[in-house]
Amino acid sequence: MIEIKNLTKAFGDFTAVDNLSLTINTGEFFGLLGPNGAGKTTTISMMSTVLLPTAGEILVDGVPLSRKASAEKRKLSVITQEYSMRQDMTMKEVMEYQGRLYYMPMKEIRKKSADLLEFAGLTEFTNRTVRHLSGGMKRKLMICRALLIDPEILLLDEPTAGMDALSRRQMWNLLRQVNDRHMTIVLTTHYIEEAQALCERVALVNRGKLQKLDTPDNLIKELGTFAVDETSDDGLKSKYFHTRDEAIAYLQTAGSNASFRTTTLEDVFVECAGRKIINN
Amino acid sequence: MGILTVLWEKWVEFRRDFYKITVAAMISPLMYLIIFGMGIQTTSHGEPYLHFLIPGIVSMATMTGSFSAVAQNMSVQRLYEKALDQVMVSPTPLWQFILGQIIGGSIRGLYAGGIILLLTIPIRTDLIFNGMSVFIMFLNGTVFSTIALVLSFLAKSYTDAPRYTAYIITPMSFLCNTFFSTEQIPNGFRQAIGLLPLSQTSSMIRAIANDQQPDYIGFLILGIYLVVFGTISVVFIYKKKNL
């Protein structure tokens, strides 16, 4: 279990994460959503100890996470937003370096690396340096690298950014599989449909503060399960209703440029983030 | 174990860039030897100038070899590739990572100095280089590796590494008992230069080369640099809020 308690991170006058508190249960697929600059990456960076908090703490199974906490860090693996790898290492060397950093026996490193790279369709590129890989291939390699060590907790910061639709779907399936093995997954993503498809619970953050925390279904229910979109000179506006009848009744009074649909997590995100941005 | 991982990573880098690293380690010292030692043939204290120059050049090569191996590599890993994140999140104790960097950097410095020694063999200078010389070269490498670590943690962009070389390494290369004896330098300035690590290394290696007893205070001074910068780099990697 991960407990984030009153976590704050300031860079000079700018507070990127502001008194964030939440709990992520063991084996949970948890999403951290928010607009650009919401503090998602900063939170992941603190969870991976690359950044140290200004205040507050992160507990992994009740033990405070720090740069010295080797036993707790052993449980963690992270896929950062940027391609955080030695650009002049080959895929094989990247995997070996990761295995060595986690004290894996060489035999196991070789076997698991081969299996993971084959699964990701990268076997024929194992001797190619990272510098010469496409963005999607680098992303897949980062995922292979993170899974090599069988982590208990996987931190994913925009893991499918830059991937084509097919690769993204493959990735979703892979993440579901590893989550089924009781691995805790914390995901930040810009693809809201990704969070809706994968996450059991999501936290909506904006300007470093927690706005909402619940299951995608509950968040949608709270906003209204049905939506009517109206296109006018001011752009697209959506109205949300708790029952189908209410939505249809509204649709009948609306102009011809109105349409009916079910609400998605993206609507919750837009309403939450958009409202905050307008208010600010 | 973590130390071996870092040394393995350094070995991978060395194996891949063997020719580049070797040629880069040779060019400047070789130029200095040819221009100052052979082109401008002079004597120093009644001895051929080469006898004075070679120990200085070997010390300098050790310094630049270890400094550049750590400063450039770490700056790029931390600021450009973000590959340091992989180490930070891993269970490898960070002090072992630091120690691995220091040892790896020193070995690269030793390699650079060793190349110069090999190149000077045909000159037949009768200078003495023994196990103690190698130890001093290694110690010098550890000092400059730790300095490089501290500076790479302070760097704001990866282009800072060449600047550090220009601000620190280049002046030391010329001033610290490498090309000329510091005896002629005015008081005050001379003592200050004498406290710099390269001055001590050059003096000790030169003394051994000329079959004299090195001034053992040099070990103390190098040791102090090593402890101070080594401690700062360990504190940085554990305590620096934004790595």
Provide structural commentary:
Chain A folds into 3 domains: 1-75 and 151-214, P-loop containing nucleotide triphosphate hydrolases (Rossmann fold, 3-Layer(aba) Sandwich), CATH 3.40.50.300; 85-150, no CATH class; 219-279, no CATH class. In chain A, α4 packs across α5 (135-148). With 280 residues, chain A is α/β, with parallel strands linked by helices. Chain A contains 10 helices and 13 strands. Chain B has one domain. Chain B has 10 helices and 2 strands. The interface between A and B is medium-sized, with 33 and 32 residues.
- How much beta of chain A, percentage-wise? 25-35%
Helix- and strand-based class of chain A?
alpha/beta
H/I helix tally of chain A: 10
Give the low-pLDDT segments of chain B.
none
The count of β-strands of chain A is 13
Number of strands of chain B: 2
Short description, anyone?
The complex is a heterodimer of chains A (280) and B (243). Chain A has 280 residues and is α/β, with parallel strands linked by helices. Chain A has helices at residues 40-47, 70-73, 91-101, 106-119, 135-148, 165-180, 192-198, 216-223, 244-253, 265-279, and strands spanning 2-11, 14-24, 29-33, 55-60, 63-64, 76-79, 153-157, 184-188, 201-206, 209-214, 226-232, 235-241, 258-262.
List keywords for this structure.
heterodimer, A: 280 residues, alpha/beta, Rossmann fold, 6-stranded mixed sheet, 10 helices, 38% helix, 28% strand, B: 243 residues, mainly alpha, two-stranded antiparallel sheet
Topology:
The complex is a heterodimer of chains A (280) and B (243).
Chain A: E1 2-11, E2 14-24, E3 29-33, H1 40-47, E4 55-60, E5 63-64, H2 70-73, E6 76-79, H3 91-101, H4 106-119, H5 135-148, E7 153-157, H6 165-180, E8 184-188, H7 192-198, E9 201-206, E10 209-214, H8 216-223, E11 226-232, E12 235-241, H9 244-253, E13 258-262, H10 265-279
Helix pairs in contact in A: 3-4, 3-5, 4-5
Chain B: H1 2-16, H2 18-39, E1 43-44, E2 47-48, H3 49-80, H4 84-89, H5 94-120, H6 131-154, H7 160-175, H8 189-194, H9 197-209, H10 217-239
Antiparallel strand pairs in B: 1-2
Helix pairs in contact in B: 1-5, 2-3, 2-5, 3-5, 3-6, 3-7, 3-9, 5-6, 5-10, 6-9, 6-10, 9-10
